[in-house]
Amino acid sequence: MALETAYIQDKLAQTFGNNVLNFEMKRDIFTFEATPNTIHEVIRFLKEQEDLNFHFLTDLAGIHFPDNDETHQFAVTYQLHNWIENVRIRVKTYLPDPAEVDTVTDLFLCANWMEREAWDFFGINFKGHPQLKRILNMEEMVSHPMRKEFPMEDSGRTDKDDRFFGRTPVNN
């Protein structure tokens, strides 16, 4: 029997109740949200349940939504893969600013660098991370360059217009 999205949703809803929500198929991948205080346990559940078997963390990424309400300023998305049934899912959690969520490095070692990248570029703090430090930018850098308030390169350049990158230009 193939692993059906309805089965995954039912198991999650039975175990976590209102802490998992907004289940949908989005661009051919089953997607849902989990509250920040339960995201670690939701991911542990998906990995450790023998009938779910999401043993591979494909990706973890940070996102900045400056126009959202203050409780949804940032998001962390986790993409998991069940190799046995060849099923992929995406789990999202929304965070306020300053963004902070539990690390999943204890569940997936590969999350180490992914979480460091999300911290480096977005300033999302992963509580319990064994070595949360910059991975691609210089240690001396004080900002997080993928945040929407970070300016795009040289403001005098004419080939790059902030409007095309989801950023509104600052009027001086």
Automatic annotation (TrEMBL):
Residues 150-165 have a biased composition (Basic and acidic residues). It is a peripheral membrane protein. It comes from the Bacteria. Residues 150-172 are annotated as: Disordered. SUPFAM superfamilies: Nqo5-like. Belongs to the complex I 30 kDa subunit family. This is NADH-quinone oxidoreductase subunit C. It comes from Flavobacterium rivulicola.
